[in-house]
């Protein structure tokens, strides 16, 4: 558990120490650009060469546990001469400042928040040449990747908070003692004493036709007894048991379960300064041809002494899954336990 906590703490220090605002944040425009997109400002020769390869090695790695391989981010190249007011407020920017000046003699990488837009992450890399650029990004690649990932989670979470389903938010507060920014177009599909299913049905256009997209969220609880309940084995067994009993498909006898041909990933993390366990994996319908990615987090509710799992999934058979499951994770990570009052 030490590595993710240390990385998060170091990331906060790095971003905070490099936080530069030329103007008040209130006067900055909103960010532009698609989720998961990073604008890279450097010469074409550098982008097509070793410097660009260094970024591709970082950001073109596969997003964890998806049915098909998808990169963690998409890179969009912009020549420095074209980096104008259209591009400057982009949500994610990496700019290569490769010149022979006093301040470029030593390679450096600085993460700046809100430089040209609100909630923007702007990475400035300085050095004499492509070799210096590579040295700087290799040294800080984990922090840089974490900064962009966390920023996307924060943006998606904030968006859903602005357009949340107040009725479900109130129900979660009153019946479950928690807050989560449930999207406005979601609805409660079923509720039992120990299991809640929130469904979200959408349509998206592709190839001149509308296609169904689904996101869903499960909340299930059990009395907390020991630390073994945070283990991967326990959480997966509990997940399969709860889904089999509560999530059926359109075909009689079908039910949701975990797809074990691609084993889920497990990580112990610090969430809101408390211990938590994360699972990422694939789900399938046993007895029916359906599946997709899921993300879940399990943590202790100190007010009720219950182990609470919030599990979310995406189903988008005609589309890439990365941004749908990233949004699921962002919504889940808005969770807060409310006081007993």
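Sequence proposed for the structure above (341 residues):
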């Amino acid at each position: 558990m030490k590595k993710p906590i240390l990385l998060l703490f170091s990331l906060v220090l790095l971003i905070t120490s490099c936080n530069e605002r030329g103007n008040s944040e209130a006067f900055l425009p909103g960010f532009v650009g698609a989720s998961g997109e990073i604008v890279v400002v450097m010469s074409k020769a550098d982008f097509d060469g070793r410097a660009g390869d260094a970024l591709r090695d970082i950001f073109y790695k596969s997003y964890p546990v998806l049915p098909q391989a998808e990169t963690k981010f998409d890179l969009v190249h912009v020549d420095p001469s074209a980096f104008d007011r259209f591009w400057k407020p982009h949500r994610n920017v990496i700019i290569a400042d490769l010149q022979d000046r006093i301040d470029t003699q030593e390679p450096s990488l600085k993460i700046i928040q809100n430089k040209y837009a609100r909630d923007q992450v702007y990475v400035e890399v300085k050095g004499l040449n492509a070799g210096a650029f590579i040295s700087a990004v290799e040294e800080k690649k984990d922090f840089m990747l974490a900064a962009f990932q966390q920023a996307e989670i924060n943006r998606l979470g904030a968006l859903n908070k602005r357009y949340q389903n107040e009725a479900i938010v109130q129900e979660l507060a009153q019946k479950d003692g928690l807050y989560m920014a449930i999207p406005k177009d979601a609805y409660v599909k079923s509720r039992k004493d120990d299991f809640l299913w929130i469904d979200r049905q959408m349509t998206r256009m592709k190839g001149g036709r509308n296609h169904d997209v689904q996101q869903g969220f499960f909340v299930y609880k059990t009395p907390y007894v020991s630390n073994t309940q945070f283990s991967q084995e326990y959480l997966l067994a509990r997940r399969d048991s709860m889904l089999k009993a509560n999530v059926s498909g359109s075909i009689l006898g079908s039910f949701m379960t975990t797809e074990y041909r691609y084993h889920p990933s497990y990580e112990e993390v610090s969430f809101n300064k408390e211990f938590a366990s994360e699972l990422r994996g694939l789900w399938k319908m046993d007895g029916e041809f359906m599946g997709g990615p899921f993300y879940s987090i399990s943590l202790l509710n100190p007010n009720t002494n219950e182990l609470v799992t919030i599990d979310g999934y995406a189903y988008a058979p005609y589309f890439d899954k990365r941004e749908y499951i990233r949004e699921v994770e962002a919504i889940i990570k808005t969770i807060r336990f409310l006081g007993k009052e």
